[in-house]
User: Fold these one by one.
Assistant:
Number 1:
Amino acid sequence: MAVFKALGNGITTASRRPTLLLILWVINVLFALLIAGPFFALFKSDLGHSLLGRNLQALDFIWLGDLLFRYQDVAPAALAAVTTPVVLYTLVYVFFNGGIIGRLLDREGRTTPQTFFSDCGRYFWRFVRLFLVSLLFYALAFGVVLEAVSALLKPISERALTEWPDIWISALHSVLALLFLSLVHMVFDYARITVVAEDDRRVLHALRAALRFVGRRVFRAWSLYLLIAAGFVAGTAAYVLAGQAIPAEGLGWTGLAIIWGQLFIAFRLWTKMVFFSAQAEYMRINPY
């Protein structure tokens, strides 16, 4: 029952932080514009108001191939223009985690841009160190554990008489990869929460505490994580199905589609808040 209690309390906590959700949404929109802006400008200058521009599909490989050929000399600069915001977003993602967890764990404090960014700066370098350590854990999970699983499954695939065993083995390998990814991510979520909750500058100490906490109740902690993930998958499926009912033509329908897309972004950000708040509640209910 502790899992469901933590989930319910986490949802309540996240839902009571609309200002935090608004801050995250604005940041997300600004970064989306930063990344999409150069490509949109190129699209606009290349096609303008031509008939091709109006009939071009979302992913037209003929146009993309022609574009790459004509702009091959500036491809490195264009690649840098796209990858730089992505790398920057990764750093900012680490930066903002401190603000998210800090505001969710501060039950009495107000959520304002000032308090949010103050928490971001306070925990940034600690979270950077945790992020670097997490890369080693991801490398271990994918480079060692999953390779060992692949080696165990390979004889089955080689003895298969049809393609179906290969399909099932590939699906099993993908599922295991996602499960290992979620397990590593969950451990570092608890490490981040520990850093904020205890104001601990010793990130390795916080990581050991998180490993000890998860190790004692791995299946229950993992079930909480997977429940939230399943809720997000279900919400995403509902979003896609409902979005297919919106007509593609018409100014009003286009506006509705844009609003619908922004609602999904808000849902994704809110789910991130639920992950942190529910796991923090689970730690509070089950102190290590």
Note: The chain has one domain: 2-285.
Number 2:
Amino acid sequence: MRIALASLAAALGVGLHVHLPRDHFPHPGAGIEWWYVTGLVRGADGHRYSVFATLFRRSGYVLPISQVIDLDTGRRVGHSERVARAELGPGSLDVSAGGAGLRYDGAANTWHFSASAPAGYGLELTAKPEKPYALHGGGTGVIRQSVVGPSAYYSATRMSARGTILSGGRRVAFTGTAWLDHQWGDFENDPRAFAWDWFSCRFDDRTELMLYRFRATGEGNGTYVARDGSARAVRGFSVAPGERVFAAAGHRWPLDWLVRVPALGLRVSVRSLARDQLFHGVIVPTFWEGASAATGTKRGYCFVEETRAGP
């Protein structure tokens, strides 16, 4: 494993640990990289919305995608997916391509995402961490990406969020909370690296939990973040799907899960807040990305992502 991590270090220009703020910026030596934000927000119209935006970088191109779901009605407010030529270099992050944008303001430690689609949809989101960044992999920022090899990975697990949603000529301002992931590595050509179940939970007691499980091996790990921002690795957990499913795109997607983490004394039921939260991809494979309520030994909400194949 140390040989594999050393190879990753050589390719990505980092050591065996992720170092911030340097590693907020692009890693041109990595085969694939993405910055990803999810948010549960409330609009000025009183509605709750699930929002997410991701910017993928690969081989001189970027692929920005986004989606907004009205959780009170189940309506898909907007969706974007485009590919564009863009060369990203190290040392700064300020991208505008494919009708989307991503900028990191280091002085303010603030992230700005934007996305749009020709049908009159637009998303603007600004997020600021309220806790230190959590380096996964036991504090190194390096995890094993299924059987394919190592990946650099860290998160901002609790962020304040604000922005606007544009749909049908109507603009709605919102505020809420968000979660940021940044991940990169040399696993872009193996679909086993992209088939996973992933949970990011923000609990009402101001703790957070990230869990992932790769479908190829069943191997999974995670990170628990305490109220004070300290993080610890989660090595053992179980996730059991419930009876509710959403049948679409050739799959039966679970809508409920029972999550157990014995070392934390955690037993949480996770229930999707809307049935159809699929991202129906044309360029990327369709996947399920859902905001869900969490109840049990802790209460709050989780985003759940279920993928079936790689980009």
Note: Residues 2-12 form the longest helix (11 residues).
